[in-house]
Amino acid sequence: MGIAVMFCYYANSSLVAISDLCYPWGITSADPRPLDEWLRRVRTRRRACMDLREYRASPSEQQRTADLLRMMPATGTRALDIGARDGHFSVLMAGRFDDVVALDLILPEISHPKVRCVQGDAAELPFDDGAFDLVFCTEVLEHIPPAVLPKVCREIERVASQRILIGVPYKQDLRAGRTTCRSCGKKNPPWGHVNAFDERRFAELFPSCRLAATSFVGASKTRTNWLSAALMDFAGNPYGTYSQEEGCIYCGQHLIPPPGRTFSQRLATRCATWSGKFSEMFATPHGNWIHLDLRKADAQR
């Protein structure tokens, strides 16, 4: 079956690569690039990414980590960490569970006696039904192609026997902070996020689960409108999230700010900024991240 589908999917009958990847949670066997070359490029990009230790040490990330640990079971037998990356959460989970599986596209390198590293894809999890007391998935679902997202969520439901702990951005306006790729010219959502979430969306994605608890971390009132977004697109999206590690979701190239703007583009930028601020005046602040504790409907309460 190959290593299947996470950051590649079909659109208009052609293969579209979603980022070349510092969030490498899967590829499709239809990818025309040789696997070894693809993995080499991923590893190179990963080494060039922001120091994860610095990221983990930031106040906002420490707050988010503390909240996730608060919602996590104190003890358990088996847990799965989807998109384990550097193993930050896998190691923390090992302090609570007898056996932790750290899953990522690239085989994680985590040295811990209770952590087992697995190379795999969240759309085709290589585990039995109900194999894990807890399935942990944070900073993952917002990056998954919309066409694949329901399948990934079904797989998460399938392998969880009791609880699922999810963390994603909350009610994110995917128009705000867009970037324009200098290589292919296409518009990208901020941070490579291709999905936005709220409670209703999760009820649709996890129909066999009940929501046991919800928590919010941080605050945001970032909001734009169609006029501001269109003007920013015309201006080349100069204020987009170009510091992100994710590449273009269409061609995989690194995203860089526009080198310069014409007078009309500068004028459009100013008008877009005013229009966006007008929208934010009427926006209601909400949590920046949402954490959800989902329980399987047939699990003991």
TrEMBL record:
InterPro entries: Methyltransf_11, SAM-dependent_MTases_sf. GO terms for biological process: methylation. Residues 80-160 form the Methyltransferase type domain. One of its GO terms (molecular function) is S-adenosylmethionine-dependent methyltransferase activity. It comes from the Bacteria. Keywords: Methyltransferase, Transferase. This is Methyltransferase domain-containing protein.
